[in-house]
């Protein structure tokens, strides 16, 4: 493109935009309503909101990283200590939810590995599949057969019965 332009060939059209020069003694009602709105409604609301944000900035609270203190297990609660029973039940429910999410994360990793590796999934995803088998077995051993309405007490009884069966099997094995 040439450096020097031919201004005669490409003329810029003259600006003929009319200037609004309206001078009246009556103010524009829209301007008046906007000013009233800004001072009566918007300014107090903005002030209160900024004050709340300043207060929240002083006290940061990360609700999504809430850490609960570990409470005693149900087997460690004293007889008749209902508050301890309640806390142990809540702790057990949180543990069950966390363990379920761990199983889901490992399962998603296996699914992604199988999708990524395609035909070579048997050899390249063997570690992930083995880890999934271990995690699901541990989850099934602890929470399996409890159902939706399982509680910490039924889980504790299940673990107690499993330990008794393992002891009985070990004693039978020794006696043979």
From TrEMBL:
Which chain regions cross the lipid bilayer? Answer: none
Where found in the cell? Mitochondrion inner membrane
- Pfam families of this UniProt entry? NDUFB10
Where this protein primarily resides, as one coarse class?
mitochondrion
The record's section on InterPro entries has:
NADH_UbQ_OxRdtase_su10, NDUFB10
For this UniProt record, the keywords arranged alphabetically read as follows: Electron transport, Membrane, Mitochondrion, Mitochondrion inner membrane, Respiratory chain, Transport
What is the documented function of this protein? Answer: Accessory subunit that is involved in the functional assembly of the mitochondrial respiratory chain complex I. Complex I has an NADH dehydrogenase activity with ubiquinone as an immediate electron acceptor and mediates the transfer of electrons from NADH to the respiratory chain.
Q: Which family does it belong to?
A: Belongs to the complex I NDUFB10 subunit family.
Task: Identify this protein by name.
Answer: NADH dehydrogenase [ubiquinone] 1 beta subcomplex subunit 10
What species does this protein belong to?
Smithornis capensis
